[in-house]
Specification:
The complex is a heterodimer of chains A (813) and B (182).
Chain A (H helix, E strand, L loop, with lengths): L1 H11 L6 H27 L3 H13 L8 H27 L7 H4 L6 H17 L5 H11 L6 H14 L20 H21 L9 H10 L1 H13 L5 H19 L2 H14 L2 H6 L1 H9 L7 H16 L14 H15 L5 H18 L4 H18 L10 H16 L2 H4 L5 H5 L4 H18 L6 H15 L17 H14 L8 H15 L4 H24 L7 H19 L6 H17 L4 H17 L5 H17 L5 H16 L4 H11 L7 E4 L4 E4 L3 H16 L4 H20 L7 H17 L4 H20 L13
Helix pairs in contact in A: 2-3, 2-4, 3-6, 4-6, 6-7, 6-8, 7-9, 8-9, 8-11, 9-11, 9-12, 11-13, 13-16, 15-17, 16-18, 17-18, 18-19, 18-20, 20-23, 23-24, 23-25, 24-26, 25-27, 26-27, 27-28, 27-29, 28-29, 29-30, 29-31, 30-31, 31-32, 31-33, 32-33, 33-34, 33-35, 34-35, 35-36, 35-37
Chain B lengths: L1 E5 L13 H6 L7 E4 L6 H10 L2 E4 L13 E6 L2 E6 L10 H11 L3 E3 L6 E6 L2 E6 L16 E8 L2 E10 L2 E10 L2
Parallel strand pairs in B: 1-2, 2-3, 5-6, 6-8
Antiparallel strand pairs in B: 1-9, 4-5, 7-8, 9-10, 10-11
The chains are: A mainly alpha (813), B mainly beta (182).
C-alpha cells in the first residue's frame, strides 16, 4: 500500500498531484476564495454592484485550476457556490425592492475568462428569470448552450451541475405556456434542456477516460466513478418532472438517453446509466418500454456487466408485480416471463465468455420472477430449473459443480429461493428442483438440505402424506444416507462430532412434522416409508431417527383405539405397530449404551397396557421382559443400573394389563433385583419403592376382566422388614440414620393407607429408635442437614398427631 | 423476580419444537431464572434455554441424553426454597403423599416436579406443589390429551404470583394464582 503511494507520488509530482501538494493547493485556493468573497460582501454592503461582480469574478477564477483532484475540486466548488449564493441573494433582494440593475446580464458577458463568466451568467440569469427581467425560455436555452464553452471535463461537469441545481425550480413543468407571462416555455423545453445538459455532461465524463497516461488508468476510472452522481442528477431531475408521462418517456426521454448511452461506447458510463435509469424511473415506465430497453442492452459494449443490469430490472419488476400483495399490477399483454426468458437466452448466446455464475444469477432472478409473479403456475419455475440443469449438462454432463466456486454459491442461492417463497409442499411440485440440487457437491448439498429442514421447522409446515414424505426424502438424501462424495469418513459420524449430532437431531425433529391428522392408515404408511428410508442410514443415524418413529408409532396405537368403532381391524393394526417397534428398538440395542432402548421398551409396555387391545398383555410382557434383560446387561454400571431399576419399578406400578401370574413374576424379579444392587443405600431405597408394587400396583383379575390393586400387606411388610435389616448393615452412621428416617416415612405412608399390622405402637417404636440413632451422629454440616430432615419428619408427625387416627402417637422434642 | 418453570419438552423424540405462540413470548432478558424439570432432551434445547437467561437449572429426566444432570436440586429465590425433581423417580408417579415426602426430605417451600405432562398447582400443609406440564404438549401414554403448558413465577420476597400459560385447542390462555409463605 505504501509502496503504491510512493510510486504515485513520484509519478505525479510533476503534475502537482501528490497528496501533500494537493492539500496545500486546496488550502491556498480556499483562502483566496474566502478573501475575495469577503471583499465582495463588503462592497455589496455598500451597494457597489459592479465592484461586487469584479470580486466575484476573481473568486470564481479559482475554479479555473487544473491542478486539483476531483475530490478536492469538489470541496472548493462547494465553498465557492456557497459564497456565490450571497451574490444571488443580494441581487434578488435588490429586485424585490425595485432597485435592480437591468443590464448585468449583458455586462458580465464581458468578463475576462470563460469559467467565471459562465458562473456569473448562470447566477444572474437565475435572478433575472425569477424577477421577470428576461424571458425564461430563451435564457435557459442560452445558458445550456453557452456552457459548451468549457470543454475541460472536470470543470465542465461541475459547471453544468451548478447550472442544473440553479435552475431546479425554474424548469417549466406545464403543458401550455403560462398565459400571463410570455415565453415561459413548456415541459418540452425542459426536456430539451435537461437532455442536452445530460448529453454534454456524459460526453465530458467519458472524455475523462482518455485524459492522461495509460498507467494512471485505474486512478482515473476510480475518479470517474466518484463523479458519476453529477451525470446521474440529470436523470433524477427528469424523473421529477410531473408532466412527463409514459408516452413522453417512451417517445422523447428514453430514446434520447439511450442514444447517448449506446453511442458513447464507454462501459463505466453504460453500466452506471443503465442502472440509474432502472432505479430512477417508475416501474410503470419500464413495463412499457421493455423492448426498447432490452434492445439497448444488447447493444452495450462487451465489457459491460450486463448481469447486474438485467437482474436489477427483473427484481424491480418482480417487486412491482407483487406490491400490496396482489399480482395484478402487470397488464395482461406483457408476459414478463417470456420476455426475460428470451432476453437472457440471447445474452447468454451472444456473450460466450460469460462465467457460469453469472448465468446462474440471471436464472435465479428469473426463477424469483416466476415464483412470485406466477405463483400457482409451477411450470414456469420448473422450466427455469430445467434450463439451469441443461446449461450445466451442456458444459459437462453428469459432473458436479466444484465445491466453493462462485457457480456453486450462486446455485445454492438459487435453490434457496423456492424455499423462501413457498412452503415445502409447493416446492415439491417443482419436480425439476432436485435436478439442480444434484449438480452440487456434498458441502453445498448439505447446506441446502439443512436450509430446507430449518425452513420447514420454522414455518411449522406439516407434511401429511406418505407420497410427499417420499418426495421430500429424495431431496434430503444427503443427510439421510452415506454419500459417495462426502469428505466425512464413516468414523466421523459419531456422537462426538457436534455437527453430525446437530444435523441428525434436525432430521429427527423434522420427522415429527410428518403428520396425517385425520388418517391413521396414512400415518402408518408414513411410518413404514420412514423406516425403510432411515434403515439405510447406518446405526449412528438410526440412533437419532428411530426413537421418534417409535414414539409416534405408540401414539398411533392410541389413535387407532379412538376409532375402534369405525375400524374393526384396529387391534391387528396396533399389533403390527408394536411388532415394528420391537424390531426397531432391537436394532438400537446394538448401540454402546442400553439406556435408550430400555426406556423405549418401557414406554411400549405402558402404551400396550393403556390400549388394552386383544394381545396387550403378551405385548406388554414381551416389552417389559426385554427391558429387564437390558437392565441386567447394565451390570457394570452401578449408577445406570440403579436408575434403570427405578424406572422399571415406576413403570410396572402403572401397567395394569398383567394377570396375576405375569404380574407376580415381575414383582418378584424387580424386588430381588433391588436386593442385588451393589450399594446398600441403593438397595434400601429401591426396596422402599418396591413396596408399592405390592400395594397400589394393579393386576388384571381374569374373571372380572377388571384391574385391581394388589394390596398384599404381607409382602409390603416383608419388604419393609428387609429394608430395615439391610439398613442395620450400613457402616456409615450418618447414611444409616438418614435411611432410618426414610424408612419411618414409608411406614407412615402405609399407616395412612391403613395397612393392617402398622399401628401406632409400631410407629412409636420407630420414632424412638430414630431419636436414639440421631444422638449418635456428629454435628458437621452434612449431618446437620440429616438432622434437619429428621426434624421435618417429626414436625410433620406433630402436626398429624392432632388427628384422631394418630391418637397415642408419642412425639415430643 | 421472574422464574420460568417448564419441562418435558421431548424434543426431538416426540415433537419438533416449542409451539410458536410460546416461542414468541419467551424472549431473552425478561426472565432471571429458569427451572427445568427435565426431558428436554438434547443439548440444542439446553442451549436455547441458556439464550433466555444465564441462570438455568435442569434436573435429569428419564429421556435426557446428558447423564450428568442431577436428580434433585434446591434453589433459593427471594424467601423461597424451591425443590426441583423430574418425578419419574418417585413411585407411584404423581402420588401426592410421595411428593409430600420428597418435599419434607428436601425441606423446601415449593416443590416442582414433572413427568406426568399435566399442569398442577396446589397448596398442601402450607407448602406449594407445582407441575408445569409439558411445554410442547408431548405424547404421554398415561395422559391421553396433553395440553402444552408452562409456568412463570413472579417472586417478591415472601409472596409468589403464578402465571400459567396454556394452549387449549390452539387457543392461548393465561391464568393467575397467588401464594404466600407462612
Amino acid at each position: 500500500m505504501s509502496m503504491q503511494k510512493a510510486v504515485d507520488n513520484s509519478r505525479s509530482s510533476n503534475a502537482g498531484l501528490s497528496m501533500d501538494n494537493q492539500e496545500k493547493l486546496l488550502a491556498d485556493a480556499l483562502q483566496n476564495v474566502r478573501q475575495h468573497a469577503f471583499a465582495m460582501k463588503r462592497v455589496l454592503d455598500q451597494q457597489s454592484v459592479m465592484e461586487g461582480l469584479k470580486h466575484a469574478a476573481n473568486m470564481l477564477g479559482e475554479l479555473r485550476t487544473s491542478l486539483l483532484s476531483p475530490k478536492n475540486y469538489y470541496e472548493l466548488h462547494v465553498v465557492v457556490v456557497e459564497e456565490l449564493h450571497h451574490l444571488e441573494l443580494y441581487l434578488t433582494d435588490e429586485f424585490e425592492h425595485g432597485r435592480g440593475s437591468h443590464d448585468l446580464y449583458e455586462v458580465v458577458q464581458y468578463a475576462g475568462n470563460i469559467v467565471p463568466r459562465l458562473y456569473l451568467l448562470i447566477t444572474i440569469g437565475h435572478v433575472y428569470i425569477r424577477a421577470n427581467e428576461l424571458p425564461r425560455r430563451e435564457v435557459l436555452r442560452d445558458l445550456v448552450e453557452m456552457c459548451r464553452g468549457v470543454q475541460h471535463p472536470l470543470r465542465g461537469l461541475f459547471l453544468r451541475n451548478y447550472l442544473l441545481q440553479c435552475v431546479k425550480s425554474l424548469l417549466p413543468d406545464t403543458e401550455e405556456e403560462n398565459q400571463e407571462a410570455t415565453k415561459t416555455g413548456t415541459i418540452l423545453d425542459s426536456l430539451d434542456f435537461i437532455l442536452l445538459n445530460f448529453s454534454e455532461m456524459n460526453k465530458l465524463w467519458v472524455r475523462m477516460q482518455y485524459q492522461g497516461h495509460t498507467r494512471d488508468l485505474q486512478r482515473r476510472e476510480q475518479e470517474r466513478r466518484e463523479l458519476r452522481i453529477l451525470v446521474g442528477t440529470n436523470l433524477v431531475r427528469l424523473s421529477e418532472l410531473e408532466c412527463v408521462n409514459v408516452e413522453r418517456y417512451k417517445t422523447i426521454v428514453l430514446p434520447k438517453i439511450m442514444e447517448q448511452v449506446v453511442s458513447c461506447r464507454d462501459s463505466i458510463a453504460q453500466e452506471y446509466l443503465m442502472e440509474c435509469i432502472i432505479q430512477v424511473f417508475p416501474d410503470e415506465y419500464h413495463l412499457n418500454t421493455l423492448n426498447e430497453f432490452l434492445k439497448a442492452c444488447r447493444e452495450l459494449s462487451a465489457s459491460v456487466n450486463i448481469r447486474n443490469i438485467l437482474i436489477s430490472l427483473i427484481d424491480r419488476l418482480t417487486a412491482y408485480s407483487t406490491r400490496d400483495g396482489s399480482q395484478q399490477n402487470i397488464p395482461e399483454n406483457i408476459q414478463l416471463f417470456d420476455i426475460f426468458s428470451e432476453q437472457i437466452a440471447e445474452v447468454v448466446k451472444s456473450r460466450i465468455n460469460m462465467p457460469p455464475e453469472d448465468i446462474v444469477a440471471l436464472q435465479s432472478a428469473l426463477l424469483n420472477l416466476s415464483l412470485k409473479c406466477y405463483r400457482d403456475q409451477f411450470e414456469y419455475g420448473n422450466k427455469v430449473l430445467e434450463n439451469t440443469r441443461k446449461i450445466f449438462d451442456n458444459i459437462a454432463l453428469d459432473t458436479q459443480v466444484q465445491t466453493g466456486t462462485p457457480a456453486a454459491k450462486e446455485l445454492v442461492k438459487m435453490l434457496k429461493i423456492p424455499i423462501d417463497c413457498y412452503d415445502i409442499l409447493d416446492v415439491l411440485k417443482l419436480n425439476h428442483y432436485k435436478l439442480v440440487l444434484q449438480l452440487l457437491s456434498y458441502r453445498e448439498r448439505h447446506t441446502v438440505c439443512m436450509y430446507i429442514i430449518n425452513s420447514i421447522l420454522d414455518k411449522e409446515t406439516i407434511i401429511p402424506t406418505a407420497e410427499q414424505v417420499t418426495q421430500l426424502f429424495e431431496l434430503l438424501l444427503t443427510l439421510i444416507i452415506d454419500q459417495t462424495d462426502s469428505p466425512l469418513e464413516t468414523s466421523r459420524q459419531t456422537i462426538t462430532n457436534e455437527d453430525f449430532v446437530e444435523e441428525q437431531n434436525l432430521v429427527a425433529r423434522l420427522y415429527n412434522n410428518f403428520q396425517a391428522p385425520n388418517d391413521p392408515d396414512q400415518q402408518y404408511h408414513i411410518i413404514k416409508i420412514c423406516q425403510d428410508t432411515f434403515k439405510n442410514g447406518g446405526l449412528e443415524r438410526m440412533r437419532f431417527t428411530y426413537p421418534p418413529i417409535i414414539m409416534q408409532a405408540y401414539a398411533l396405537t392410541f389413535r387407532y383405539k379412538n376409532i375402534r368403532e369405525q375400524d374393526e381391524k384396529w387391534e391387528k393394526k396396533c399389533q403390527k405397530l408394536f411388532q415394528l417397534c420391537n424390531q426397531l428398538i432391537n436394532t438400537l440395542t446394538k448401540l454402546e449404551t442400553n439406556d435408550l432402548p430400555l426406556r423405549l421398551y418401557l414406554q411400549g409396555a405402558l402404551a400396550a397396557s393403556e390400549i388394552g387391545s386383544e394381545n396387550a398383555e403378551t405385548i406388554a410382557y414381551e416389552f417389559f421382559s426385554q427391558a429387564y434383560t437390558l437392565y441386567e446387561e447394565q451390570a457394570g454400571d452401578t449408577r445406570a443400573q440403579s436408575a434403570s431399576l427405578t424406572l422399571l419399578i415406576g413403570t410396572l406400578e402403572k401397567v395394569t394389563c398383567f394377570a396375576e401370574e405375569n404380574h407376580s413374576t415381575l414383582r418378584q424379579s424387580l424386588t430381588q433385583a433391588a436386593t442385588r444392587l451393589v450399594k446398600r443405600p441403593d438397595q434400601v431405597r429401591t426396596l422402599l419403592l418396591c413396596t408399592h408394587l405390592f400395594w397400589s400396583a394393579q393386576r388384571l383379575n381374569e374373571s372380572t376382566q377388571k384391574s385391581e390393586q394388589v394390596h398384599d400387606n404381607e409382602k409390603v411388610l416383608a419388604c419393609l422388614k428387609k429394608a430395615t435389616k439391610l439398613t442395620t448393615q450400613i457402616m456409615d452412621q450418618s447414611v444409616q440414620v438418614q435411611l432410618y428416617n426414610e424408612l419411618l416415612n414409608t411406614y407412615i405412608y402405609f399407616f395412612n393407607q391403613n395397612l393392617p399390622d402398622i399401628d401406632i405402637t409400631l410407629l412409636n417404636s420407630l420414632i424412638e429408635k430414630l431419636q436414639n440413632e440421631m444422638s449418635k451422629i456428629s454435628s458437621n454440616e452434612n449431618d446437620e442437614f440429616i438432622r434437619n430432615q429428621i426434624q421435618k419428619t417429626f414436625d410433620y408427625l406433630r402436626q398429624q398427631s392432632q388427628l384422631e387416627k394418630f391418637q397415642g402417637l408419642q412425639i415430643n422434642n | 423476580m421472574l422464574v420460568l418453570v417448564l419441562g418435558d419438552l421431548h424434543i426431538p423424540y416426540r415433537v419438533s419444537g416449542l409451539p410458536h405462540e410460546f416461542r414468541k413470548l419467551l424472549t431473552p432478558g425478561r426472565i432471571q431464572h429458569i427451572l427445568c424439570t427435565g426431558n428436554l432432551c438434547t443439548k440444542e434445547t439446553v442451549d436455547y434455554l441458556k439464550t433466555l437467561t444465564a441462570d438455568v437449572h435442569i434436573v435429569r429426566g428419564d429421556f435426557d441424553d446428558n447423564p450428568n444432570f442431577v436428580d434433585q436440586k434446591v434453589v433459593t429465590v427471594g424467601q423461597f426454597r424451591i425443590g426441583l425433581c423430574h418425578g419419574h423417580q418417585i413411585v407411584p408417579w404423581g402420588d401426592i403423599e410421595s411428593l409430600s415426602m420428597l418435599q419434607r426430605q428436601m425441606d423446601v417451600d415449593i416443590l416442582i416436579t414433572g413427568h406426568t405432562h399435566k399442569f398442577e398447582a396446589f397448596e398442601r400443609d402450607n407448602k406449594f406443589f407445582i407441575n408445569p406440564g409439558s411445554a410442547t404438549g408431548a405424547f404421554n401414554s398415561l395422559n391421553s390429551s396433553t395440553t402444552p403448558s408452562f409456568v412463570l413465577m413472579d417472586i417478591q420476597q415472601a409472596s409468589l404470583t403464578l402465571y400459567v400459560y396454556q394452549l387449549i385447542n390452539e387457543k392461548f390462555t393465561v391464568e393467575r394464582l397467588e401464594y404466600r409463605k407462612a
